[in-house]
Amino acid sequence: MKSYLAAAIQMTSIPDLQKNLVQAEELIDLAVRQGAELVSLPENFSFLGEEKDKVELAQEISEQSEQFLKTMAQRYQITVVGGGFPVPVGDRKVYNTATIVDPHGIELARYQKVHLFDVNLPDGNTYEESGTVKAGTDLPSVYRSEELGSLGLSVCYDVRFPELYRHLSSKGADILFVPAAFTAYTGKDHWQVLLQARAIENTCYVIAPAQTGCHYDLRHSHGHATIVDPWGVILADAGDKSGVAIAKIDPNRIEQVRSQMPSLQHRVFA
Ligand SMILES: O=C(O)CNC(=O)[C@H](CS)NC(=O)CCC(=O)C(=O)O
């Protein structure tokens, strides 16, 4: 594994596939100009709208998202992590799917979001992700890249389930991705502390691209795309506007933290 720059993109996706892909490419371009070799996009980067529209358009969103990720990876010669996008499965349901694509345009890993966000928030917003999304049933696998380290996928609400990240770290992950569209309401109190906890307890980098601002109607996302180092230090935070969080991913830092704090080796129950 080498030392390199990684980017977590922060955007405001809307119910318009083509406009989102234009916005995403502009931000990828910005990240690459700053030297990023690995660029991650948030959950719902290609479409964030009403559930019924998402399901109706799922085939098109899915095809265009996959093509977009391949094109970006090849055009900019980077590895791309595509946060969640809908992939149709069965009748009027989708998998909320995240993928990793290498600079040749080859898909390296694919994960279907396991934990679905069915929550009524005190701010009056209700979420019933399981109404349109079929839950994945498989733990994510770790992709071992010679250059970039061992990469583990997750999506958004998964961040509340530490056992998923424990699985990834016990399979050798160095970098945990948490592409998200965290709600403004939960994000203000939970987002940063959950990301830091996952980094600290697994002594891994956490890269968390995010949605921000108002998508449509009352849908607001928290923003703060973040990169956390294995000690739990916030290396970059994109604030609340669209943009990119960029930080150096350094194998020496992983080694240093794991020798200073060898907690992964002291596990008793896992
Ligand atoms: O808002 C949208 O339409 C887009 N969001 C999503 O698609 C997903 C599923 S509804 N959001 C989350 O998982 C938020 C989790 C979260 O916010 C928490 O765990 O607190």
From TrEMBL:
<comment type="similarity">
    <text>Belongs to the carbon-nitrogen hydrolase superfamily. NIT1/NIT2 family.</text>
</comment>
<protein>
    <submittedName>
        <fullName>Carbon-nitrogen hydrolase family protein</fullName>
    </submittedName>
</protein>
<dbReference type="InterPro" id="IPR036526">
    <property type="entry name" value="C-N_Hydrolase_sf"/>
</dbReference>
<feature type="domain" description="CN hydrolase">
    <location>
        <begin position="4"/>
        <end position="251"/>
    </location>
</feature>
<dbReference type="InterPro" id="IPR003010">
    <property type="entry name" value="C-N_Hydrolase"/>
</dbReference>
<keyword id="KW-0378">Hydrolase</keyword>
<dbReference type="InterPro" id="IPR001110">
    <property type="entry name" value="UPF0012_CS"/>
</dbReference>
<dbReference type="Pfam" id="PF00795">
    <property type="entry name" value="CN_hydrolase"/>
</dbReference>
<dbReference type="InterPro" id="IPR045254">
    <property type="entry name" value="Nit1/2_C-N_Hydrolase"/>
</dbReference>
<dbReference type="GO" id="GO:0016811">
    <property type="term" value="F:hydrolase activity, acting on carbon-nitrogen (but not peptide) bonds, in linear amides"/>
</dbReference>
